[in-house]
Amino acid sequence: MIPRGLILELIDHPWFQRLRRIKQLGLSDFVYPGAVHSRFHHAMGVFHLMSRAIEILRMKGQAISEEEAEGALIAALLHDAGHGPFSHALENSLLPIEHEAITLRIMERLDAEFGGRLRPAMEIFAGNHPKRFLCQLVTGQLDVDRMDYLNRDSFYSGVVEGSIGYHRLLTMMDVDDGRLVFEEKAGLSIENYLAARRLMYWQVYMHKTCIVAEQMLELLLARAKHLGWTRGASPALAYFIELKEKDGTGKQEEQLDMFGSIDDADVEMFLKMATDAEDGLLALLANGLLSRKFFKVKVSAQVFPAHEVADLREQCIRVFACRVEEASQLVRLSQSAFTPYEPADDEILIRTKTGQVLPASEILSIGHFCKTEQRHFMTFPPGLSAL
Amino acid sequence: MIPRGLILELIDHPWFQRLRRIKQLGLSDFVYPGAVHSRFHHAMGVFHLMSRAIEILRMKGQAISEEEAEGALIAALLHDAGHGPFSHALENSLLPIEHEAITLRIMERLDAEFGGRLRPAMEIFAGNHPKRFLCQLVTGQLDVDRMDYLNRDSFYSGVVEGSIGYHRLLTMMDVDDGRLVFEEKAGLSIENYLAARRLMYWQVYMHKTCIVAEQMLELLLARAKHLGWTRGASPALAYFIELKEKDGTGKQEEQLDMFGSIDDADVEMFLKMATDAEDGLLALLANGLLSRKFFKVKVSAQVFPAHEVADLREQCIRVFACRVEEASQLVRLSQSAFTPYEPADDEILIRTKTGQVLPASEILSIGHFCKTEQRHFMTFPPGLSAL
Amino acid sequence: MIPRGLILELIDHPWFQRLRRIKQLGLSDFVYPGAVHSRFHHAMGVFHLMSRAIEILRMKGQAISEEEAEGALIAALLHDAGHGPFSHALENSLLPIEHEAITLRIMERLDAEFGGRLRPAMEIFAGNHPKRFLCQLVTGQLDVDRMDYLNRDSFYSGVVEGSIGYHRLLTMMDVDDGRLVFEEKAGLSIENYLAARRLMYWQVYMHKTCIVAEQMLELLLARAKHLGWTRGASPALAYFIELKEKDGTGKQEEQLDMFGSIDDADVEMFLKMATDAEDGLLALLANGLLSRKFFKVKVSAQVFPAHEVADLREQCIRVFACRVEEASQLVRLSQSAFTPYEPADDEILIRTKTGQVLPASEILSIGHFCKTEQRHFMTFPPGLSAL
Amino acid sequence: MIPRGLILELIDHPWFQRLRRIKQLGLSDFVYPGAVHSRFHHAMGVFHLMSRAIEILRMKGQAISEEEAEGALIAALLHDAGHGPFSHALENSLLPIEHEAITLRIMERLDAEFGGRLRPAMEIFAGNHPKRFLCQLVTGQLDVDRMDYLNRDSFYSGVVEGSIGYHRLLTMMDVDDGRLVFEEKAGLSIENYLAARRLMYWQVYMHKTCIVAEQMLELLLARAKHLGWTRGASPALAYFIELKEKDGTGKQEEQLDMFGSIDDADVEMFLKMATDAEDGLLALLANGLLSRKFFKVKVSAQVFPAHEVADLREQCIRVFACRVEEASQLVRLSQSAFTPYEPADDEILIRTKTGQVLPASEILSIGHFCKTEQRHFMTFPPGLSAL
Question: Cβ neighbours of residue C92 under 8 Å, at least 6 residues apart?
Fold first, then answer.
């Protein structure tokens, strides 16, 4: 189905093939054992939805040149190319830059390699293309990326409530004055899409067991960095463990090369090597992650009372004979805030039956999706008990 | 899978088998061609979910006697036995009583026939059984009836957004102080269930084309009754067409017998016979329904302005040379109001992690589901044009 | 998705809309309660697969003109337009001609109505179009009709083993020297398709309970014809009950008109009316069908021994006090023979990796599908017992 | 759903949790990108089907004690515990023993750890349990292992034709004279199961691209062993690379420990490290596997002619300047033979309607599944061209 040429060469390129070795949902398979699908599979899905979107918009009379179509397809394909393994944990502990920036730098490299043929894709990805609807298809509040990952993550996790009617959403798309719009008839489907997004956020992406596993990994990597402990680490992982923050400038290309060779295997191997580290904390965390002996986690809609936290940290010091600052890492507070729909951002646009184009927040029943929900998490080692 | 005995005899009974010949969604297959599943199939589904619910509650330690279980299963099986063909249209035009009342009278007959063995089922169906949770499983704001029909109607219509995670909902059920409760972990699934219920209501059950088809059928039957026109009607359908309201009393058993022999075929045959009725309106409606030439319909969140209605009725009189009162029937106003969750009713109960039992409206994000949404419909014959 | 124009007008035409009121699988929902999908839905599916096939063949470089494409789509849409309700039972008892011939006559009528625009479709349907592959797509040993009904009947009956990989089959299609060919890579999928066809034949289409229900309906209609019993029959059904064989000639148009107004409702209403016929046999059959009190059935790979049949017929005479010839109808022998793949017919063609085109029987492992399997059925009224 | 106790402890045990990190289908995701499901997920599925089977057999009146049920469930859970990463490639190149033997040794260890409580499971797994049907459920020609993996691999690969009606198969199970039997009504489902098994074998498990990837991995590991090249290998992988065959005896426990810590990550990391090995062949193979530059492969039903092989090997020597014996490894012949049903093994037993128990080969249409199909593969490096 994929025509020979630039796109096929990009798919077969090592920068894209590495996504095969990175799980889309990181550690979530601890909770949802089927959720081991790769970022490669997701990227192919986004590519497919983009090709359907282009087909539908052309059928509705939108002029989209071959070059523009290719640009949009490549932007769809590569939109997540900058993701590393276990994204959040690594970004929070080891990597000096975040994945969107890396994606752009990967695109630049590929553009150089393919003689400037990725220009349109880069403009679309960066949101600078004159055909604004192409940018919105790649990055917007209702783009083909989200359509694919909600359905895909729902499918592989088995959380059926997260599935969306992407087929109907695609069919209801059109372009009005250069912007992506949805016909009013799609109203209920859009509301359902936001509901699915919210549900997947809390039920899967922020599932408390996934949170705690991710925090343990982050703690482990930060600890290794703190100790300069790299035994058995792959060269690339060792590079980032040993990277000093002040090294950041001027070594961007080197860092990108190193980044390009890290995937899930580097981290998983390192975890296994750390199980018998002489540092007790490293070993505790590594063993916990491999044998599913997770830290405990409490979830609350409110901030945890200071005395509850203090009590746990004191227990921690007592039980693990650790220092105050270590106790602060081990008994850890975090929070997550989520707004399924952001009326302050570039809004989803609805075209009414009378041809008017209105922002979704004015015409759909989505007021409750504009509210931010917040959850607080307190994680702490097994052996302690919360008040 | 269904053990021999009373339940199997009820399933094979003509009162239950007739549900095979009644489509669950009446005229909706005009819009969703796959939605031709029968009320029989739905009833079997509700029966199945009830058997799963009983199994799960027993596993959680609830004592449910064999007699109670049988009662709940029979109540589940027969809960819709009183539905006639094209339910709303017939109830609004021909039938003197509504389907819940008929269900009870059918149960009484079966109880008599089976020597009083339906008593527990009747208590459960009527909401009088001492084990209140059994009643709530059959009729509540989150009962096995709704679980089945949302998923089934979603599946057969292809409106995927209406599917719910019934498996998870069943697993999260328990009983507390005699009442049905759901564990707090099911919170997002319950919110999704309400969202699915709302979506299915507007997208399928109140789809404007279904509305207009139903109103045409209702109009046709009312017209036939008004004219006393029964040509080609089956004896039972003719009986209800000719029934005078004052006949209602004292002939309940006769009416029930007649009702028991009507199904979709009676109405469909009558439609075909009416296509060449000498009465122009009858013929217009019948031909419209059979050849998919529907009346037009306008939908609005507000009441239609009086002058717009008046204008259409005047056109109607002009075009069809009809009388004022007929024009009022042909240009017809109706409305639908829906509240996905009724905090004033018997609430869905949630048991928190700490064991507290709270009404759903206090603990879940469902405020927006407690609001009533309203849509106004104005239907009018083809050939007229709205302002 | 369906462009305005001739095709949409045909879909909205009464000759096509009547397929909404005819179940694809007749009485099979007695066994598989979900299998109530209509011939309309199947025809739309065949239409869809044809449009995909055309798209794929064009992508592979086949020149298919707009006129040819429209012809193929219409032929796909109307290929079953001549089916009546409960096809086999009616064809065996009442109707003077079979459904393929009726389909052609319906096409002729529509061709006249639409000013000769159905010519290409008729050529394709009749197998006379110069582009032979278009004919093969509509009627062949691996056509879009079979692809749709196997998958659809499998889906709605729940017999999952009958599903086929139609997507892969379509993708592997090409045209070689004017004929439809499949790439060798599709070999296993074709073998699986034949296996699914065989399984569906015996598990669904020839399920013994479906067989017995169909025979009861056939017997009932034949009995009504024999008696000239038409009470409560619709005018069209009465017409065919009273039709004498010698009437056949010269009244073809009248018969077609009558045929066009019969659907499932006519037969179902007639069944209900016959439940209290004065003729014992009519009443027995009608009640049996409505209350699921079926005749018994024995299935065997061999012909039933003469003395076993004789014994049952004697019991029949004794128990029902009927005449010898009636006993022969009530204790009835039939048989079904099926060959999943007919090497003597126009073969499925395979194009090998080296570009050679060979008949499937020479290159695939389908020898066992070329054998004819036979089953014998003996049906007899309840109350008798086989040796 | 899984009760606390021994079974849950086994699931959480490191020996079982490691299966999370081993893909069920090894390198097949190069062809079927969704097929990345783990052996852990499969083992849980087999466990689930076993629990359903026990439930059904008990409902049919078979006495199965709690201890026997637990044994069967544990045997189901652990039946594949001895699989390493990329099973076939590693077993052919590095590991001294095969996975069934390792499974038994793991069970022995766990048995010791849990105080002899795995005895019944071990008897069932080894086929020595007095209740023969329990053994047949775990290992037989129609066992819960095969039921799960056919359906699971079909689902995740997207090869829909491989799905089977496991629900029906389970329902049709019974025990007769201590042996597992299937009711005759399941005949078509069993035939379909064998067809699915055959299709999955050739379409997925022996897909030519999977074959070639596996052979490249095997070649790479054998080469590393030959060279004693372990740079960047994990300690456990290095152990097996350096293991001499004569070391095999007397070090079984040490080997098992090492084996227990290897999973997909060890191999994937090693591949990445080998991409810049100084040995040209190692580097060629590693790069090929990571960038999807596979060797070429020819498939044939016949043995490849000697001169064709010789020609390729000569090219190989010329192009890669390698030695004769290396050319023999690079241009490699292999073959696969498969018999979907082995009438010589413990047969699937069918109970006829009359209660007779017969082997499947006598009563079902499966003659063609008893034939062995053979395919020959010739793989060779890119750059060469076959005659």
Answer: C218, C222
- Residue C294 forms part of a structural domain: no
Give B300-310 pLDDT, tens digit per residue.
999 999 999 99
How many domains are there within chain C? 1
User: Do residues A93 and A221 lie in contact, with contact meaning Cβ atoms separated by under 8 Å?
Assistant: yes
Instruction: Kindly identify which residue of chain C lies nearest to residue D160, measuring between CA atoms.
Output: C165
B71 Cα distance to chain centroid: 22
Per-residue b or e along B278-304, where b marks 16 or more CB atoms closer than 10 Å to that residue's CB: eeebbebbbbbbbebebbbbbbeeeeb
- For residues D84 and D98, the answer to whether their CB atoms sit within 8 Å is no
CA-CA distance, C293 to A26, in Å (whole number)?
Answer: 58
Could you tell me which chain B residue has the CA closest to the CA of C44?
B33
Model confidence at A89, pLDDT cuts 50, 70, 90, reads confident
Q: DSSP string covering D192-226, please?
A: HHHHHHHHHIIIIIT-HHHHHHHHHHHHHHHHHHH
Find the helix or strand (DSSP H, E) in which D375 lies: strand D373-380
State both tokens at B15. 């009162």
Phi, psi of B315 (to 5 degrees): -55, -40
Domain of residue D55, CATH code? 1.10.3210.10
Could you say which of D195, D365, D367 has the minimum Cβ distance to residue C192? D195
Per-residue pLDDT tens for C115-174? 999 999 999 999 999 999 999 999 999 999 999 999 999 999 999 989 998 999 999 999
pLDDT of residue B98 exceeding 90:
no
3-class SS of residue A359: strand
- Phi and psi at C114, nearest 5°, equal -105, 30
Cβ neighbours of C14 in B, within 8 Å: 290-291
CA B351, B352, B358, B362 torsion-angle sign: negative
Domain with C174 in it: 6-204
In C94-185, DSSP assigns E strands to: 173-176, 179-183
| pLDDT at position D91 | 83
- Minimum CA–CA partner of C41 in chain B: B33
The answer to whether B36 contacts chain C (CB < 8 Å) is: yes
- How many Cβ pairs within 8 Å bridge chains A and B? 43
Residue D226 lies in a domain: no
C17: which chain B residues are within 8 Å (Cβ-Cβ)? 290-292
Query: Could you tell me how far CA A153 lies from the centroid of its own chain?
Result: 12
Could you tell me if B86 and B216 are in contact, meaning their C-beta atoms sit under 8 angstroms apart? no
Q: Does C189 touch chain D (CB under 8 A)?
A: yes
DSSP state letter for B282: H
pTM for the full predicted model:
0.94
Q: Which two three-digit tokens encode residue A224?
A: 């290794």
- What's the pLDDT at D100? 84
Q: What is the DSSP letter of D365?
A: S
- pLDDT score for D231: 93
A188–B365: do the CB atoms touch at under 8 Å?
no
Q: How many CB atoms lie within 10 A of CB B66?
A: 7
Angle subtended at Cα D346 by Cα D345 and Cα D347, rounded to the nearest 5 degrees: 95
What ipTM, to 2 d.p.?
0.93
pLDDT, tens digit, 9 for 90 and up, residues D220-257: 999 999 999 999 999 999 999 999 865 556 788 899 99
pLDDT at residue D282 tops 90: yes
Q: Is A202 on the interface with B (CB under 8 A)?
A: yes
Asked if B281 and B325 count as a contact pair (C-beta separation under 8 A), the reply is no
The answer to whether A333 touches A376, Cβ cutoff 8 Å, is yes
What is the pLDDT at residue C94? 85
Q: Is residue C209 part of a domain?
A: no
Q: Is residue D109 part of a domain?
A: yes
Largest CA distance in chain D: 71
* pLDDT, mean over chain D: 94
Distance CA B219, CA B228 (A): 14
Taking alpha carbons only, the member of C379, C377, C374 closest to residue C327 is: C379
